[in-house]
């Protein structure tokens, strides 16, 4: 089984460890696993002192943990979560990327759980649910960015066919939850100023599983499977393993058909990716870097600085000019060289649909001057009482996502419940087929996605995953009937 092979690789690593000076192994989040077809747990959200890196900070945690406990289930399982809101604000839970019903106490973005109240979530993963790296976080409109920036986010892993491929079973598995925090001198979460909200708030403390620059190890000759989640509300991660190749095996919605060699990997907020690292290089330390990336919005920032007398505090991000070190990879021990898988899981070809919808993503000035900006789809800010897209169940649609933002800000687009495939970017076909639930639409770009609406009817949402933009209106409702 996967765990037995992983255990034997791990014990080799452990034996070597006693002679290795780099002992600070990265900690994975706590685990809750399904048994006999049921994943059941209690989950409580509250504000409390939590250790982050080498500091204590007052953060928002699920069960007192940042990142939150890792949940693991299999296709066909029932998921039952007894949730209690001990925050001082309303909240709820969203199961990002899961293909489950959006109605009732399931992946329902319209639920509202007031402070001190509880709700039991219950839903079933379809029998053919893909295996992959999904996650959960709060989704109460107006509070999402603040609560996720406080730390509320955890992995939701669905185990299945990808985990059963022998080469993948032989790999050592690590989970990397990427979160950035802005912590003030008294250990509290910084509140963003006006511009930081427009840009999307970022913090200067970069963490992997709540740690600063942890160390991961790979057996020389062995394989390492890294499962990344960008759980930051706004920060983009342009990941690279210094002087070391890696191979993409899965995106948001699960496995690719075959591994794709990459030199770097851009993860917008909400996105996930799985890569294999092969221990075939010189045994030494390799740094996992976050390379500079400009996500746009410069003009707006300059205007704003003019307005505020140039004194406003930069929130990093677009202004990041140097690579940042996220973690270190060290080689330990050796195994006889393990091969990369040649084939993974075939990715379905979707039929070309008749329906094409166009969605313009933009930032609009509010009617009343001085009220700031709202973020919109087709010029409209979110209205919980309006249906923006009426879709027929069991049809496929193409959606054309057009970023017409006057400041050419990047907007990662996310659709709940219904995974999709990216067909073209600025008219050019994508290099490989993959399932996604969040796709980056850069300033000025047009991205065409193909969405099968199947299995579940009801109302759900799509939105920008720069969560301040979502809270400021960039969200719409799709009704599937
Ligand atoms: Cu991860 Cu609707 O969000
Ligand atoms: Cu956005």
Automatic annotation (TrEMBL):
Domain Plastocyanin-like: residue ranges: 52-160, 200-290, 366-479
Question: Which InterPro entries does this chain map to?
Answer: Cu-oxidase-like_N, Cu-oxidase_2nd, Cu-oxidase_C, Cu-oxidase_fam, Cu_oxidase_Cu_BS, Cupredoxin, TAT_signal
MF GO annotations: copper ion binding; oxidoreductase activity
Q: Looking at the record's lineage, which domain of life comes first?
A: Bacteria
Keywords of the record, alphabetical order, are:
Metal-binding, Oxidoreductase, Signal
- Which SUPFAM superfamilies does the entry mention? Cupredoxins
Which CDD domains does this one have? CuRO_1_Tth-MCO_like (cd13853), CuRO_2_McoC_like (cd13881), CuRO_3_Tth-MCO_like (cd13900)
Task: Tell whether Oxidoreductase is among the UniProt keywords.
Answer: yes
Query: What Pfam family does this protein match (any one)?
Result: Cu-oxidase_2
Give the matching PANTHER family: MULTI-COPPER OXIDASE, MULTICOPPER OXIDASE LPR1
Q: What's the protein here called?
A: Oxidoreductase
């Amino acid at each position: 089984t996967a765990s037995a092979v992983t255990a034997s690789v791990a014990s080799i690593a452990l034996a070597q460890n006693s002679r290795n000076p780099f002992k600070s192994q990265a900690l994975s989040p706590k685990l809750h696993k399904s048994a006999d077809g049921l994943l059941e747990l209690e989950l409580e959200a509250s504000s409390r002192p939590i250790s982050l890196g080498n500091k204590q900070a007052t953060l928002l945690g699920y069960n007192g943990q940042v990142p939150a406990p890792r949940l693991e289930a299999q296709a066909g399982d029932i998921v039952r979560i007894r949730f209690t809101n001990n925050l001082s604000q309303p909240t709820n839970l969203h199961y990002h990327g899961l293909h489950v019903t959006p109605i009732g106490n399931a992946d329902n973005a319209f639920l509202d759980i007031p402070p001190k109240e509880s709700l039991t979530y219950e839903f079933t993963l379809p029998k053919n649910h893909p295996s992959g790296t999904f996650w959960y976080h709060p989704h109460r409109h107006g509070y999402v960015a603040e609560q996720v920036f406080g730390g509320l986010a955890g992995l939701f892993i669905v185990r299945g066919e990808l985990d059963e491929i022998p080469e993948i079973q032989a790999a050592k598995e690590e989970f990397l939850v990427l979160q950035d925090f802005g912590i003030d001198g008294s250990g509290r979460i910084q509140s963003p100023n006006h511009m930081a909200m427009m840009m999307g708030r970022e913090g200067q403390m970069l963490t992997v599983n709540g740690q600063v620059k942890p160390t991961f190890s790979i057996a020389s000759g062995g394989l390492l499977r890294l499962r990344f989640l960008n759980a930051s509300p706004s920060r983009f991660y342009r990941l690279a393993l210094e002087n070391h190749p890696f191979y993409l095996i899965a995106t948001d919605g699960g496995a690719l058909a075959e591994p794709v060699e990459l030199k770097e990997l851009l993860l917008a907020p909400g996105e996930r990716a799985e890569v294999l690292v092969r221990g075939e290089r010189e045994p030494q330390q390799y740094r996992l870097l976050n390379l500079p990336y400009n996500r746009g919005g410069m003009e707006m920032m300059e205007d704003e600085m003019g307005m505020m007398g140039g004194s406003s505090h930069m929130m990093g991000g677009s202004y990041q000019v140097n690579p940042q070190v996220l973690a270190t990879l060290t080689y330990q021990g050796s195994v006889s060289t393990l091969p990369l898988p040649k084939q993974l899981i075939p990715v379905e070809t979707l039929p070309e649909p008749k329906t094409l919808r166009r969605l313009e993503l933009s930032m609009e000035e509010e009617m009343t001057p001085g009220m700031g900006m709202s973020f919109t789809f087709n010029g409209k800010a979110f209205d919980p009482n309006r249906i923006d897209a009426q879709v027929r169940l069991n049809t496929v649609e193409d959606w054309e996502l057009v970023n017409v933002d006057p400041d050419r800000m990047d907007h990662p687009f996310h659709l709940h419940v219904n995974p999709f495939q990216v067909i073209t970017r600025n008219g050019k076909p994508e290099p490989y087929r993959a399932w996604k639930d969040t796709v980056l639409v850069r300033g000025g770009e047009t991205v065409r996605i193909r969405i099968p609406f199947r299995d579940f009817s009801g109302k759900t949402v799509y939105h920008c995953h720069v969560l301040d933009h979502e809270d400021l209106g960039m969200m719409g409702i799709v009704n599937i009937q």
